[in-house]
Design a protein that fits this description.
The protein is mostly helical. It has twelve helices and two strands. The longest helix has 30 residues.
Length: about 350
């Protein structure tokens, strides 16, 4: 528990201080955000705001994790290292996207195919390693599972290895793009990530306390390295919290694709490693709704040859176009995220109580 608090607190401080330094450095180099021309006109004033702030979130998280392990004098676990690989790897894909935008002074970075190839390579490597027998512990547990899971593995939903890897790929690419779509207003995605990663820290702690290696019984959890995953979850929560100080309206810096792709992938990675894949749909309900709004808008537009469901997608822009202030949209979407997190944690705990 001390390592969790240490990692989360250290990441918060490093992110809070590091983001201020990053604003100065990125501004001096002219690494500013390009804005969509077809977006709300109120966003045009944000052109030139420093971007790629996700670098600070990533560095703060990774540094805080390893210092927390040094503090606790424990060796890093396979699950945590896999999650950090996914987190950093997807952040690198986002960094390339951000850098191209800045270098070429345009709103389009990597081509969609190139970005998807990068996401796919990282996701497939993570999925294969997470399910590989090479990483089994002394109890025969791999970091991930070939069973589809909700709050724990669903016994009758065992999948072939290749199908399970493809499911991991779908979850990772889906949520990395979902957080990327949500990151359209000052502090919106950052604040939502604070709550969802905080929820996963609690899930990890509970799974550790009720681990089959400790308590046994029908309600225990066969999750590998839950305490180490809690340190990573707490570190990301703290890093996002520190970043939010500067990213809240009016934002002095944006996380860019560097941050949004890495955070979305880390959420999916946590769902895979904690056997809560379908529970993530509830905990990350805001990200799911934002993505569905884009899919519905595009599908309806093509089917009706030009008609729209929303004034603009993703959904947060629709409410902006209706005249809502940005701060109002962000706070109300945070409230929705809080309700989703409360519902997800409630379902998680209720399942354990019912089983007990």
């Amino acid at each position: 528990m001390k390592a969790i608090l240490f990692g989360g607190g250290l990441a918060l401080i490093m992110s809070l201080v590091g983001t201020r330094f990053a604003i100065t450095v990125l501004s001096s180099r002219g690494y500013g955000q390009e804005i969509r021309e077809d977006g709300p006109t109120s966003h045009h004033t944000k052109r030139g705001t420093p971007t790629m702030g996700g670098i600070v979130i990533i560095l703060s998280t990774v540094t805080a994790y390893f210092l927390a392990k040094l503090f606790s004098q424990d060796a890093p676990s396979a699950s945590a290292l896999l999650l950090l690989f996914l987190f950093v790897g997807m952040g690198f894909v986002g960094f390339l996207d951000d850098f191209i935008k800045i270098y070429k002074q345009r709103n389009l970075g990597l081509r969609s195919k190139a970005k998807m190839i990068g996401q796919t390579v990282i996701a497939i490597i993570f999925g294969w390693l997470a399910l590989s027998p090479m990483l089994e512990d002394e109890r025969g547990r791999t970091p991930g599972s070939t069973h589809l899971s909700f709050i724990r593995e669903i016994p009758w939903l065992a999948l072939p290895m290749i199908v399970a890897v493809l499911l991991v790929w779908l979850l990772i690419t889906g949520f990395s793009n979902a957080v990327n779509l949500t990151d359209g207003l000052d502090g919106l995605a950052t604040g939502a990530c604070v709550m969802v990663f905080g929820a996963y820290a609690l899930v990890n702690i509970w799974q550790n306390n009720q681990s089959c290696a400790i308590v046994g019984g029908n309600t225990c959890y066969e999750v590998r390295d839950p305490l180490d995953l809690a340190i990573v979850s707490a570190a990301i929560t703290g890093a996002c919290f520190g970043f939010l100080w500067w990213n809240a309206s009016p934002a002095a810096i944006f996380m860019g694709d560097t941050g949004s792709l890495s955070l979305g992938a880390a959420l999916a990675g946590l769902a895979v490693l904690t056997r809560t894949e379908l529970l993530l749909v509830i905990l990350g309900g805001l990200f799911v709704v934002e993505t569905l709004s884009v899919m519905l808008q595009v599908g309806y537009f093509k089917a009706t040859k030009g008609k729209r469901v929303f004034r603009m997608a993703p959904l947060h822009h629709h409410f902006e176009m209706l005249g809502w202030e940005q701060v109002t949209v962000v706070i109300r979407f945070w409230i929705i995220t809080g309700l989703c997190v409360a519902a997800g944690l409630g379902v998680f705990y209720a399942e354990w109580v019912a089983g007990a």
